Model the fold of this input.
Amino acid sequence: MAGSSAISLPPTVGTALPMLGKSDTKATWCPGCGDFGVVAAIEMAVKRLKIPSHNVVLVSGIGCSSNLPHFLSSYGFHAIHGRSLPVAEGIRWANHELTVIATGGDGDGFGIGCGHFVHTMRRNVDMTYVTMDNQIYGLTTGQASPTSMLGQKTKSTPSGVIESPIDPIALAIASGATYVARGFSGDVKHMADLIQNGISHKGFAFIDALSPCVTYNKINTFDFFRQRVYKLENSGHDPSNRALAFERSLEWGDKIPIGLFYRAERPTYEDLEQVLNAGPLAKQPTGLKGRESLLDEFV
Amino acid sequence: MKEISVRAGGQAGDGIASVGETVTRSLSRMGLHVFGLNAYQSVIRGGHVWFQARASKDRVHSQGDACDVLYALDHQTAEVHLPSLSSGGTVVFDPEKFAIPPEEVPVGTQALAVPTLEIARKYTSQSILQNAAGLGATAFLSGIPLDILQRTLADSFGKKKGEVVDWNLGASADGYAYARAHAAVNPNAVAPSGAPKLLLTGNQAIALGAAAAGCKFLAQYPMTPASTIMHWMAAHSQEIGVVVKQAEDELAAINMAIGASFGGVRAMTATSGGGFSLMVEALGMAGMTETPVVVVESQRSGPSTGLPTKTEQGDLNLMLGAGQGEFPRAILAPSNPAEAYRMTIRAFELAEAWQTPVLLASDFHLSECTSTVDREELDLDVEIPSLYAVEPNGHEYKRYLYTPTGVSPRAIPGQPGLNFIAGSDEHDEKGHLISDVKSGIPIWVAERTKMMNKRMSKLAGLAASTEGPVLEGPADAGVTFVAWGSTAGAVRDALRILAERGVAANLLFLPTIYPLHGAAVAAHLARAKRPVLVEANFSGQLGRLIRAETGVEIPNRLLKYDGEPFYPHEIVQKGIEVMGRGGQ
Done:
């Protein structure tokens, strides 16, 4: 193709390059917040995969949990409320050699950003999305969230929530995500495994992290989940079966499953977008110099 | 100036768009300057649609006022458009379809009954072929040579060959011969003149300009009149290596574009006012994170859904004020496809140089009308610097480093040693948040002020690197029209008509709406004897901006918000009226 010359980017993998670590910004979450477990799990997962920090982009929206990119040493984009996924998609399509991980909360992802959540999954964009689901709006001091349970009393629902909660796992399976898992901040190593496999998965990986808010949600606490969670991998669940995955996703009561619900192989958006077959967009030639024949259609 | 205007109308689904395309392109292939207007309604079948193609050896800047040849496919077209038929003009119709009573035909014009359906039946039972016969008759009356018409008609079928193409060519020749036998060529007909010209819509020029500027990513949600930018780019996506993403909504579209820009490519989104309203919050994010992005806002009649297929310049206030808080932006407003091409390229250069959003203001009339352009006006040789321009230098990398220009070194993800977080929260030079635990603490309060000053200082740079107001026409004029966007086209045509009537008039055209170049605008207005503001909106939004920035009030106004474009005669009339009132 004519135009200006291609740009060479640094290699994707190189062990001499700095690995992901903590940044010089101290996390500002409340002591005991579930999100500490999630940031630790993400750091652990990326380190195990030996992806140099300059090839990782953490993208978030707004909310307590969306401050996460500031606490790690990769590239990051701390976007506006609800828009982490379209920003993350744009980054992936500009340079699909980058490892893109979107993070955020339940309000950001399933409330204001729910439309993007569904559409990103149906596209099977090859990226990872970790939601820190605390079933409450924390940063705005305790209003109901899309995953707050029926009847939960909050500042905005003093008589109790009267809307059915969104089921992020069922929604993800229905919308076409090809890796759907649930982690728990009380089990960081397990969550790190889920995230690591999610990053390695070719396609859209969604990990809903049960990440208790210790300040505003007195119902869905660490104890609440410790008493209820069980691991799917220990219960004979077959994650390749979409119907069974859906059935398990409906389980929310005395027992709450964590682990991998569903995994499938299907071409990613980047596979199917033919322009990207020529390599990362950011490395491709630019402009129309010498392409005068393009003007012929206007004669 | 010798010029010919050809008009045709009928119901949506009658094939008027392809008749219009064939006539307009035949005229541009004759080497003439052409302006083509397609007027349609927000329906897919039925309703009234029409087009006008106006051509001359000299530049034409608008659809003009009258028509010389009218091809009416239904009686409504005759009713609506016969009053616009110029003296000596001809209306073509098929009496088998409807009659035009003699009293409806204006004095000095004639009706030519052409048996288009009968001609069509010679070839096929498909009545759509009548249009080829009608085209032939229309072409004869308009002075379009049959061979040019037939080549254009054949090309409109693309690579398709076979009997359908043959029928069309046959029917067009029959219609042409019929008209020649029964009528004379219109006295205003213009002979072919030189090499074929290029014919583009404003939106095609914008899409082409974006690609030439190195745009690699376009995200868009369908909305008239911006959709055809996406259509052109999608049709050429693989050929030119541009990823085109139809997003789930405009929120996603602009956020994807910002993400792609952050990720290392030049990126754009395009929409109309409704979609732009949804993009407003992200526009501020681009300003805050200092991420370049080009946003095309092709205005249509508002408010709300408004008139989806009609034009207006009512979104200027929105573009000026879009986004909470304050951040630097530029707003460029081309008036025709050649400018749209050039200014789109400029928009990318400015967005990247100043790391901030740049808006390209179009409108229905510019986006969807066609104009001829010379090849030299579409220079594809655009210098596109690499985005990977910053190298680690041993010092701590600061993405938002304070600099005299306000522009800081921008790293791209994937570059080792330059990791940073782009934040929509207020941040320090390194990109660290100062919005939570640091907010309100005196040193960080001062930091906030410095960071605002840094970003806003780019406005001075944007002003210095954008095009100031341009005075077109005689320096000494009785009337000075002040206009922006596509409205300038009708004004340019009006200047010539006024000159023919002995009125010296000029145009103060603002290619850059923001930053305004207020001193230059004020200086021009101080010299203007009778300034007249011409805008397609209710309140004179550019006039308000000029008054706000310069203190100069433009006393005379020609404002229009009926959804229709300006016609030269409206501006001529206003000029004569203002001249009658004496000097300022």
